[in-house]
């Protein structure tokens, strides 16, 4: 509607202008040398308008003819680019689908239509990787690394190819060169950091971390945590060679991450050596409140070396009060109480764990029974129960279990991967096997008669398959003997004609429990006495001998003979 109104207004103005020009008196005279032309004003304006339109049309025709070859040329290029884009799009989709033949066809088409397009080079490289042609992939990435717009992408491709070829030196050189050219490259920074951590260059890793933080690749919280982990690793490594560097690194790591256990233990040690016991205790108390750990309890008890066991017990009692409901608090208190021969306090700490003990709790109960009463039978029963007890937390990362903390996962190379937790393999499964061993249960019943039902003589041993989670005292995937394999390998097909028992109970002959004399004895944890600190916690000879006396009257453990 508005356009119609504007058009009518324009027509009215044009008519008014034409009428005004027609009403103007006078003539227009053009004189050039001897040539003279005279006309009225309306005719002059009409002739001038026609001449202008003719000139404009002539210029447009000439310009169009002049530009026609270029227009044809650009049209051909646009068609080639469109075909190239179509080929690149279809090729990348084929790579995503894993169709190597289709990807190669479209990669060849893209190279034919747009040989210098960076996406065409990328398609060629990915197609070669999909086909397993490493040399072709390397050539494509080299071509990309030679261009300014794809240099970083090409170098990353060369880095990946070097890793696939198991050439860490070439991979490291490529990553360092990429980081030198582009300090803000996230992949190069991560790769160089991983390499330096792998070879224990903690100072170099700290430099890379600083560069990444300055480039904004990691946030402040992650930066503080990762720097603390690297400082803790450097402090542990330099503990014997450069005490000053180790002390400074441990204190800075503890300042950045007060809950990091290794740095807290080492920082407390250095503070105690500097006669700053109160500050050392504060460091451990802060870490203990967040995550109790046996290393923290040991360091807290040893704040002042040479203190009598009673003083150490009082100190540990003060620490465990800050997280009294935690399992580690009970274990730490029991350990200190046994060393101080305060058996009543040790038993009160362990009694809540007696029904579902962990391995460490069961071993402490065995040591308590032997130290307090000299009861070898009960101690032996608790030692055997430790075999079937739930797994204690350990340092684990990506399924790898370590006996000490490590800054980097040996599986994935991930920084700060180790966590203090129960391994996944030791967690109870949904269908766990509960083994009722008459011999073991009799010994356990001797120590705690209320923990087991009365034994019934001359009854077959049963294997109960629980549909829900297994009891905490039975670690998953760690059967006491070869019973689970026997049951799974030999189903009761011969009993098909007989009445079937309940689905969750399988009767097995007791002879399955008897191990041949020639077979190796199982590994069973051993209780060590306070005066025998050098005894290993495991021994393959334990199950094949009677009670063995340790040097200086120390007690090692007990186990049944295979032929008993």
3D structure, described in words:
- There is one protein chain.
- With about 575 residues, the chain is mainly alpha-helical.
- Among the domains are: about 220-355, Serine Threonine Protein Phosphatase 5, Tetratricopeptide repeat (Alpha Horseshoe), CATH 1.25.40; about 360-390 and about 430-480 and about 500-564, no CATH class.
- The chain is about 55% helix and about 10% strand.
- It is built from 21 helices and twelve strands.
- The protein has a three-stranded antiparallel β-sheet, with no helix packed on it. Strands 6-7-8 form a three-stranded antiparallel β-sheet, with helices on one face. A two-stranded antiparallel sheet has the order 1-2.
- Strand 1 and strand 2 form a beta hairpin.
- The model is unreliable at about 430-564 (pLDDT under 50).
